[in-house]
Write a structure and sequence with these properties.
- This protein has three helices and nine strands, in the order βαβββαββββαβ.
- By secondary structure, it is α+β, with helices and mostly antiparallel strands.
- Strand 3 and strand 4 form a beta hairpin.
- The termini are far apart.
Amino acid sequence: MRINKFKYFTFTYFDCSLEKIEDIVLKKWGDCKKYKITYTPFKFDLYESSPLKGGAHFEKIYFFAPKSCDGKCVMFSNYSDGLSSLVYQITYSLKIKAYSFRICTDDFPDAINAFGYIENGTERRTVYAMKDPKWKFYCQGEVQPFEDEKLYRARTIKQKLNKDILIAYCVKLGFDIRDDDFWESKQSILLERLSW
């Protein structure tokens, strides 16, 4: 599994085609000299094992059409929050839904495992288990059909929502992130900020 190279990673799965996302990217950043848009195959080259914390670095974002999911688009960025504000903007503009995931290994120092369901720019569901500095579990919104609520009753907080559970949720949603074909792109756009 390609995702095993990461201690922590984030991605968002949009329920729309890459072409629709491309329209937004071109309208918002196409004429901006602070950004560069490149059509290139998706690669796991934005960071080594986890994205940098904070926002003091230039954003880099891949938007790609997974080989294993026709008509869908994935966003993979170099920001530790997965550029969540952009996800809200895109879902609002296109009137679509998206699933954002933050997935880490058990030994990651600032552990967080989370998913969010966003529709039309509105948060519909958020669930996370994080260490800050003690383990905390949080959930809000209507439980989704792919969730297994009984897992949230585990005694150990970090077992309520972990990497394996989030991978299983992805599979139930119809995209198997364990499959390398998911991370192979038919088409891909790399958006990079060049200057402040």
